[in-house]
Structure formats: structure tokens, C-alpha cells
Design a protein that fits this description.
The strands form 10 sheets. The protein has an 18-stranded antiparallel β-sheet that branches. Helix content is 17%, strand content 44%. The relative contact order is 0.08. It is of the alpha+beta class and 939 residues long. Helix 5 crosses helix 6. The two termini are 19 Å apart.
Length: 939
């Protein structure tokens, strides 16, 4: 859908950049960023910020404004720097709303916590239910703002105007260092890397480029520099960037150590810190049973139905996050239950934000995003079908479903449009929804007591919640009273009642790492909690597996897997790590600070003001088309809901042709509503390469306007329409001057649910069906209709291996119909590029794609290391033809062969193919072999 403008520009420049259309083979695909919600935007202006919010989240915006101003004062002191302009902050009240933002072109995956976009200097942040996380992310992104501002200012002072970029480990590490404490997640990933010997230093940090580990490695490095060289050295690293564009050189000058020298001391320090912990703690794999470890596996749920014990979990084995199950008698072997991320119904499982629960009669409750909100599904594991699904008018996000023991109710945490996350109970017999809490505290992970009288849940409504701490609470369903179950400066979550209701297991970081704890007498005062596991890293989401076993997920070797511990009661009785809590009534909880009216400069409805996004110029020379000189620029509003594009260039070869060869196109693109549209005007002229004749060059002038719409039916499907009216003047030769008033109309249906690997799709399918009609409504020089059908299917044979199929049939039928092109690396391999032409085209391709070489790391002298993502192999068969009429159909053509593909820096795929042509209407092979080297993604 966001490719509307790209399609339009391709259409407008078809005559002078025909290569673009030929490479894409005339159709486009892609998933859709759908504007499900009609946001009513406002702007809250403070001393240093412009807070953009929609009216339902006004309270959240005022809280965020307070956090932002608070962070400004802190960062101003740390950087010893002030910002010149006010900073635009754009808040979304949920991750689901955040995915609809137009401030970034691409699709936003689950788990992205926000970003700083430096072109407009704007910060875009979703609220995930936790005000503590909200404060952290605001300060994290504002650290980026201060960092870029200070670096730019320092370089200007030294007369340096070229861009010098800080390494990503430093930018993200500093943003974490200045915005949050060294918490249990940071400790988990760092400790795991050290104890399992995959820790790297700064010399090899790019091995983990962009990962969560890289963030925490950067944070730990800066903490080490602060402790050993002084915190002022961190800012000096930015100040000294004027000295060299190599950050390692800057680091050597600032702290006296280059990467290798720093790593020697830093890595030794980490080993001394973490190795001794193995005397008291254990890796999860050493002291628990493996249930499933093939890929990521999380959020387990246990059932014993008719003697068959099974574990259901959310996992990702093949690229799609889905629901799997494994039998305890066949541990390690799993089967797919519900495939996610490939259909409208199960658009996306939230890997970390939701969980599973199973009733005693075999009903599985799970959550997926479907369209504009999450839906709750009830699935019968015996019948293997969905029994019911629930969505709620005012609830955007749903997490942690839990059945009551009589299977008649489900409790869950729900996030409303305003961002509040509260507890709800759904009556499955009546369909009635009851809200239990209604405040700005983050209430999660509910679980019913077996008698149905209580809910236990985790919340930051504790006295320590202001510091992003969570304790456990009991909700009395008969009188709506909330009492503490645990209390302290800690994070307790994921509580689960035992079958008899006397015990609760949960996770806690009381002693640093997140381990499994248990309370054995829930309703006694004081309650005693004891530590059950003593892992080096972390345990998550424990569930009872019978009366004396616990199934849980754990982090080890950079992976999350499902494991089990037994003899839980014995472990509790022998545990020496314990803590007592007075189960007191909930009182004197923390309150959230908000920016008061005196601190607000204005609070007005959002008005679109357009500013520059990009401006570029270019000068190119082509042996056929001559010289091109021109430029392009784009403008958009702060939310990027509306954009203007301007294209201007000249392709004259002589001074007398300057005005004759003047080209301009102006377009507007609107992405604000679900129905996207674009319109514009254009004037294009110059020499064209006529593919209907043999290498004939002629002059054409075309000018007019267009209107295009794109309506997403879902994340995977859309309908597109386009119409254009243009005047065309062609000087083909002295005797052939053709003037036409062309009216073109088209409608397309597009579907795409593919899963991509390094060099192209490996799973799913793509479909584009386009119908069009073009006519000269003035002189009838051109009059033809178009049919374009393109279907592609990718069948996974093994995790990195797939069989790809493409079938195409294109047809332009009528007077002076335009031709299609065939041949080259992206279509009929072995045949010269675009050498086969005709108004009709059929093509089929079959390709086996497989790994040839796993990730490759080259270690070069002078501390230069280069990493590559691996090489993919392919064996292919191609067949096709182009023709105009049945009289010039010609021979069917084909090719067979093999090749390899290589992803260069994640930006482009390099391709090499070798094989033989199939010639003489598929009767023989060519005697020699062809070789082709090109670039581009697999079809």
C-alpha cells in the first residue's frame, strides 16, 4: 500500500526509465500498513517539547510531558548542552496503534519500543502499559536527540561539516546508560554470554549488530568506562569526534586504549565477576529437564487430558510465531497447532506480551492481533478447531488469559484506547465482560484461585512501583478488595495457583536474577516465599505441571526454551532463601506526576505544517537517452500523513532543446485514512526507446494527471485502482507524427503473506491480478486492454530450504498495445536481458533454494573484521515466451542451471547463475553454458 507513490512514479517515468518497470516485471507486492483508527490529534506544547497525542490519551500525554521535561533537565546536565529547538514527541497509547504510524516507511515489528527520526528531529514512542517503561523509553530516545545535537554542534565548532557517525554500540549503549539502571534483563544477557563463552568485546561488536545484546554490551562498556576512567570521559568521546572519523582512534585518544587494549581488560573483568557465580548458581540446562529447545519457545501451558500430558507454547521455529505443542513422553518433538503471521485471522502473536491457558476440559485460550485490535480465541484441542472468538469495543490489547477452575470464566489484562491496562473477567456463558480495575497502574498476569473467590495478579501499584517494580496482589472477587501478597523493592510476576489453592509459584528477582519462587500458605499471615530455582540467568512464566512439577521457559545461550523441574515441594522445604511478607491491605500507593496547566504553553488541535523531508539532485549520462540533470524533493507534515513530491529534470542534448526536453511531476500522497490516495500532474518529454520496433529512438512529449487509490482489506491483502488522462505527442519519423489523448484505467488485487530470508522469500504466497484499459479518446491511435496475472508460491522443505514457483501471464490486446519484456537474471535466465518482446507473455519458474555456506566471519589484519550473512544456493528451471499474434508466437524458450546468491550488507542481493539454454522449442540444449552475474532479490 505504501508503494502507491512508487508505482505512480514508475508509471510516469515508463518512457525514459523503462528499465525500472522491466525489472519489477510490471507488478508489485508487499504487505500493508493499515490505518485502522481515525486519530484526532492534538499538540501539547511545553517549554522544550511539542507533544503530539490523540484526545483519548490526553492523561497519558500529560504524564509523558512530565517525564520528558524531567529527562531534559537530567540530560542537559549530563551532556552540558542545551537543545536549540523544541523537540516533537509523538505518543501512541498502545503498540497496536504505534504500528500504524506513518513517521517511518517500513512495517514495525512487535517489540519495537520507539525511535528517534533525525530528519524531522521527532521522537515516536508507544505506551506498553507500564509507566516505568514509558519513562525509560522517553529518556532513552531523548538521549539520542541530545547526542546528535551535541555531536553536530561540536563538529561545527571545529569547522567540520561532513557527517561523522558514532558507532551503534555507543549510541544505543549511551541511551541505555543514561535512561535506566543495570537491571535483571541486562544482567541476564551479559552473564549468559560470559558463562557460555560467546561474549565479545568492542573489536567484534558488529557480530551482534542491532540486537538487544548489543544495547546491553554498550551499556556495560560505558558503565565500565565511567567506573574506571570517570563518567566525564563518556561525553569527551563525543567531544573528540572532530579528531578522526574512526571512533576507535577517538577512543584511544580519550581513554588511552583502542578496542583491543580495552577488550583485554574489560572481558577479563567480566569473567572475574561472573565465573565465581557458578559455585552457587547453575545454568538452567544443568539442573532442569529439556522440554523443547528447537527455536524460540515461550509462555508454556500444561494439560493432562485422559492421561496424555502435553505442553502448549508460543514459539518460532520456522519464521512464523505460532502455537505448538509437545507430548511429555516425546520431549523435543513438537507439532504445529495454530500458524500465526500468515493469515488475516491470526495476524500476529505477541511473543512477549500475551500468554496461553488451558482449561481442564481441553479448551485453549490464546490471543492474536486481528486487524485493529487483539482478539481472544477459544480452541478445542480435541476437535482441533476454533470454538469461539471475542473482541471488545474499547479494548485494543489483550494479555495473559486465565480460565477459572469451573471453565466458565476467563480473566485477562486489557489495554483500552487511552492506554490504561486493567483486569477484566469474561463470562463465557453469557458473554458479559466485567472490569475489575480502572487506573493508570499496570495490572497483568491474573490467575483464579481454584474456589473462584480470588484473583492473584502482578502490578506496579506497589509502594515501589514508581521505580518500575511489580509485586503480587490478591483481588477478593466478593468485595473487590485488593491486598498485598508480596511486597518489596523487586519485580514479582507470573503467579500461578496450585490445584489445591494453597500454593502460588511465580518469578522474582529478589536476589538479582529472575528465578522461580513459591508461597506455600497463601492465605496465612505473614506469608513466606522461598526460592525454588537458583539459575544464573532467568526463568519466565512458570506453570504447574501436576502437583510437584513446574514447566517454565528460560534464557540460556541467547535462546528462550521450555524446561521442567520436578520435586518442587522438596526444593521448597530445603530452600534456605526465604522472605516473609505481611499480607497487608493496599494503601498509600504511588501517584503519577503530570504536567500541570501552569507548565503548558498551549494545548491545541493538530494542524498540518509541511517541512522538508529530502532534497536531492543528480546528473547522469546514458548512451541511448543522453544526459539527464535534475532533482527531486519531498515535503510532509509532522505525522507524515500527507506528503508532496516534486520531480524536475531536463534531458536535452542541445541548447535549442532545453525547453522542449523539460520534465516536471508534482504529486500528493495521503496516508491518513485507511483509504490511501495519490494524485498529481506531470509533463515528460524527450527521446524514447521504442520496444515495439527494432531499437528505434523517437521523441515523445506527454503531459496530464492521474488519480490513484489503495484500500487495504487486511495486513496481507489490498485493492488498488488508478486512472490517468494524458496528452501524448510522438514524432516517430518524418511521416509518422502521432497525437493521442490517452485515458488509462486499472484495478488490482494484491495478496502477500511471504516470509523472507537473506535473499528473498522462502515461505508463503504472492498474488497480483491487474485489469486495465487504455484508449485514445481523441484520435483512436491507441486502444487496448491489459490483463496481468502473477502468482508465486514458496513451499518450505526444511527450515532454510524452500521450493519457489512463479507463474505469470501478461497480455495487452488491441491497437498499438505496449509490449512486455522477457530475458535476464530476474526472468528467463541465460537469455539476453529484455531481448524477448511481445504484447503477450507467459513465464514459469521453479527454483530450489538452499543454504550453501552459513554465516561467514573474515578476520583481517589491523583489527578489521568483516561479517557476511552466508551464501544461498539455487537450482532452477525457467520457461516462457513473448509474442504479439499467433503468427509470430515463435519458439518456447527455457533454461536450466544453478547459482548462488549473496546478501551484501543487508541491502542488496548479488546473483550468479550458470546453466544451459533450452532451445529449438524445448527440443535441445545449447552446446555451451551461459554465465550471468547481476543483482536483485529472488522472485
Amino acid at each position: 500500500m505504501r508503494r502507491v507513490f512508487i508505482k505512480i512514479i514508475s508509471f510516469l517515468t515508463l518512457f525514459f526509465l523503462f528499465i525500472t518497470s522491466a525489472n519489477s516485471q510490471f507488478v508489485d507486492f508487499g504487505r500493508n500498513k493499515v490505518q485502522y483508527s481515525n486519530f484526532d490529534w492534538y499538540v501539547l506544547t511545553t517549554e522544550h517539547f511539542q507533544i503530539h497525542y490523540y484526545k483519548e490519551e490526553k492523561e497519558l500525554a500529560e504524564q509523558g510531558a512530565f517525564f520528558a521535561e524531567e529527562s531534559y533537565k537530567v540530560l542537559q546536565q549530563k551532556f552540558k548542552h542545551s537543545l536549540i529547538d523544541t523537540v516533537p514527541l509523538i505518543f501512541y497509547s498502545s503498540p497496536t496503534h504505534f504500528k500504524q504510524t506513518n513517521t517511518t516507511e517500513g512495517l514495525i515489528p512487535d517489540g519495537v519500543g520507539g525511535f528517534f527520526e533525525f530528519i524531522k528531529g521527532r521522537v515516536v514512542i508507544p505506551f506498553d502499559g507500564s509507566l516505568g517503561n514509558f519513562k525509560h523509553v522517553i529518556r532513552h530516545e531523548l538521549t539520542h536527540v541530545f547526542m546528535i545535537s551535541k555531536l553536530t554542534s561540536d563538529l561545527k565548532l571545529h569547522g567540520i561539516i561532513s557527517d561523522r557517525v558514532l558507532p551503534l554500540w555507543f549510541t544505543e549503549g549511551l541511551a541505555e546508560y543514561f535512561s535506566t539502571e543495570w537491571d535483571m534483563q541486562a544482567e541476564m544477557v551479559m552473564k549468559d554470554a560470559v558463562l557460555n563463552n560467546y561474549i565479545v568485546g568492542l573489536s567484534d561488536w558488529e557480530e551482534f549488530f542491532g540486537t538487544f545484546f548489543m544495547y546491553k554490551l554498550g551499556q556495560r562498556v560505558l558503565q565500565y568506562i565511567s567506573d574506571n576512567f570517570g563518567e566525564d570521559k563518556i561525553i569527551q568521546l563525543i567531544d573528540n569526534m572532530f579528531m578522526d572519523d574512526n571512533f576507535e582512534v577517538v577512543m584511544k585518544y580519550t581513554i588511552g586504549k583502542d578496542y583491543a587494549e580495552f577488550d583485554k581488560d574489560f572481558l577479563y573483568y567480566l569473567k572475574k565477576q561472573y565465573y565465581p557465580q557458578l559455585t552457587q548458581n547453575d545454568n538452567p540446562s544443568q539442573v532442569s529437564k529439556n522440554i523443547f529447545s528447537d527455536g524460540f519457545a515461550h509462555k508454556p501451558a500444561y494439560i493432562n487430558l485422559n492421561g496424555k500430558e502435553e505442553i502448549f507454547f508460543i514459539g518460532n521455529r520456522t519464521g512464523y510465531t505460532s502455537i505448538f505443542k509437545t507430548n511429555l513422553e516425546k520431549r523435543g518433538v513438537c507439532s504445529l497447532v495454530i500458524e500465526g503471521e500468515s493469515s488475516d485471522e491470526f495476524e500476529q502473536f505477541h511473543y512477549f506480551r500475551t500468554g496461553l491457558d488451558i482449561s481442564k476440559n481441553g479448551r485453549l485460550a490464546f490471543i492474536t492481533q486481528r486487524g485493529e485490535k487483539d482478539e481472544l480465541y477459544i480452541y478445542d484441542i480435541n476437535l482441533d478447531k476454533i470454538l469461539s472468538e471475542y473482541s471488545f469495543k474499547d479494548i485494543v490489547g489483550i494479555g495473559s488469559p486465565a480460565f477459572s477452575k469451573d471453565n466458565k470464566q476467563i480473566a485477562f489484562s486489557g489495554t483500552e484506547f487511552s492506554g490504561k491496562t486493567d483486569l477484566y473477567i469474561l463470562n463465557l456463558e453469557t458473554g458479559k465482560l466485567k472490569r475489575l480495575t480502572n487506573d493508570y497502574y499496570d495490572d497483568i498476569d491474573p490467575c483464579f484461585s481454584p474456589d473462584g473467590e480470588y484473583l492473584v495478579f502482578a502490578s506496579d501499584r506497589t509502594l515501589y512501583g514508581k521505580n518500575n517494580r511489580y509485586n503480587l496482589f490478591l483481588y477478593n472477587l466478593s468485595n473487590n478488595k485488593i491486598d498485598y501478597l508480596t511486597k518489596g523493592d523487586e519485580i514479582d510476576n507470573a503467579p500461578q495457583f496450585s490445584n489445591d489453592g494453597s500454593k502460588i509459584i511465580f518469578t522474582s528477582n529478589v536476589n538479582g536474577s529472575q528465578n522461580i519462587w513459591m508461597i506455600d500458605s497463601v492465605f496465612q499471615t505473614p506469608t513466606k516465599m522461598k526460592q525454588i530455582t537458583n539459575f544464573t540467568t532467568s526463568a519466565f512464566d512458570p506453570k504447574w505441571c501436576g502437583d510437584n512439577n513446574i514447566v517454565f521457559s528460560s534464557y540460556e545461550r541467547g535462546n528462550i526454551t521450555i524446561r521442567m523441574i520436578d520435586s518442587v515441594i522438596k526444593k521448597f522445604d530445603t530452600s534456605s532463601v526465604a522472605k516473609e511478607t505481611d499480607k497487608s491491605e493496599l494503601k498509600n500507593t504511588w501517584t503519577v506526576s503530570r504536567l500541570n496547566s501552569d507548565e503548558q504553553k498551549s494545548n491545541l488541535r493538530y494542524e498540518k505544517k509541511f517541512t522538508l523531508d529530502i532534497a536531492t539532485t543528480a546528473l547522469t549520462t546514458d548512451p541511448v537517452f543522453g544526459t539527464f540533470a535534475g532533482g527531486a524533493l519531498s515535503l510532509s507534515d509532522m505525522l507524515s500523513n500527507e506528503r508532496y513530491y516534486f520531480l524536475i529534470y531536463n534531458n536535452s542534448n542541445y541548447e535549442t532543446e532545453f525547453w522542449k526536453s523539460f520534465n516536471i511531476a508534482i504529486s500528493k500522497l495521503s496516508l491518513e485514512k485507511r483509504l490511501n490516495y495519490a494524485y498529481g500532474i506531470y509533463h515528460l518529454s524527450g527521446e524514447r526507446y521504442d520496444l515495439t520496433e527494432s531499437d528505434l529512438v523517437y521523441y515523445e512529449r506527454i503531459y496530464g494527471g492521474y488519480l490513484s487509490f489503495s484500500y487495504p482489506l487486511s495486513f496481507f491483502k489490498r485493492i488498488e485502482t488508478s486512472t490517468s488522462l494524458s496528452e501524448s505527442e510522438k514524432d516517430i519519423d518524418i511521416l509518422n507524427n502521432r497525437r493521442s489523448l490517452l485515458l488509462s484505467n486499472s484495478v488490482s488485487y494484491v495478496r502477500d503473506n511471504t516470509l523472507w530470508y537473506y535473499t528473498g522469500p522462502i515461505d508463503g504466497e504472492r498474488l497480483n491480478l491487474t485489469l486495465g484499459y487504455t484508449s485514445d479518446i481523441e484520435n483512436s491511435n491507441e486502444n487496448y486492454y491489459s490483463i496481468l496475472f502473477d502468482y508465486r508460491k514458496y513451499v518450505r522443505l526444511a527450515r532454510p530450504t524452500s521450493l519457489a514457483f512463479r507463474g505469470q501471464f501478461f497480455m495487452n490486446e488491441g491497437k498499438n498495445a505496449r509490449r512486455y519484456l522477457l530475458g535476464g537474471s530476474w526472468s528467463l535466465r541465460g537469455w539476453p536481458w529484455i531481448s524477448i518482446r511481445g504484447t503477450k507473455l507467459w513465464q514459469t519458474n521453479v527454483e530450489l533454494r538452499f543454504p550453501l555456506l552459513d554465516e561467514l566471519d573474515l578476520r583481517l589484519p589491523f583489527n578489521m573484521n568483516i561479517g557476511f550473512p552466508g551464501i544461498r544456493g539455487a537450482v532452477f528451471f525457467d520457461a516462457g515466451n513473448c509474442w504479439d499474434t499467433k503468427d509470430n508466437y515463435g519458439d518456447n524458450k527455457g533454461s536450466i542451471g544453478a547459482g548462488f546468491r549473496f546478501n551484501l550488507f543487508g541491502a542488496i542481493a548479488l546473483r550468479y547463475d550458470i546453466g544451459k539454454r533450452i532451445i529449438n522449442n524445448f527440443k535441445s540444449l545449447q552446446t555451451n553454458v551461459f554465465q550471468q552475474f547481476f543483482f536483485g532479490w529472488d522472485f
